[in-house]
Amino acid sequence: HIINDTLRCDVILTHPPYLIALSALHMSSVIHNNDNAMKWFSELTISIEKITQVSQQIIQLYELWRGFEEKKRNSGYPVPNAPSRMSHSGSFSRVQMFYSQRNEVTLETPN
Questions:
Q1: At what angle are helices 35-42 and 17-31 packed, to 10 degrees?
Q2: Stated pTM of the model
Q3: Can you tell me the distance from the alpha carbon of 101 to that of 84, in angstroms, rounded to the nearest whole number?
Q4: How far does Cα 93 stand from its chain's mean position?
Q5: Own/partner pairs for 8-13, CB < 8 Å, 24+ apart?
Q6: Whether the predicted pLDDT of 106 surpasses 50
Q7: DSSP state of 76
Q8: What is the pLDDT of residue 102?
Q9: Which residue has the higher pLDDT, 62 or 13?
Q10: What is the rounded CA–CA span in Å between residue 82 and residue 32?
Q11: pLDDT exceeding 90 applies to what percent of the chain?
Q12: Measured between alpha carbons, how far is residue 21 from residues 6, 36, 71, 72, 83 in Å?
């Protein structure tokens, strides 16, 4: 779903497709604790900083969506039980924690 979600933000306008794909792969490897993939990333000639910049923009999109969902729940109006795009909120938290622990990215919440 990560790749599909990038179509809903401006990351596709600001970064080349291969960088978006690598960011999605990196985020997925963090979610699934795939050590082989992490080793593979260390062998790439592409800077991990570029990958984490794209990942940060994707994470900001998920933060924005989470804020909308919270506002809907707190509005007092009945909200249908539609499936959430961030159905793996635990996975999202793991990705956030990964980037913040390694100080590779400063995770900023959108205003």
A1: 140
A2: 0.64
A3: 27
A4: 10
A5: 8/61, 9/57, 9/58, 9/60, 9/61, 10/57, 11/54, 11/57, 11/58, 11/61
A6: no
A7: S
A8: 55
A9: 13
A10: 25
A11: 14
A12: 10, 17, 31, 31, 25
How many other CB atoms are there within 10 angstroms of residue 52's CB atom?
20
Position with higher pLDDT, 104 vs 34? 34
Chain-centre distance for alpha carbon 52: 10
Helices marked H in the chain — which ranges? 2-6, 11-14, 17-31, 35-42, 48-74, 89-101
CB 104 within 8 A of CB 47: no
53: Cα within 13 Å, side-chain hemisphere: 12
Report d(CA 51, CA 35) in Å as an integer: 17
How far from each other are the two terminal CA atoms of the chain, in whole angstroms?
Answer: 24
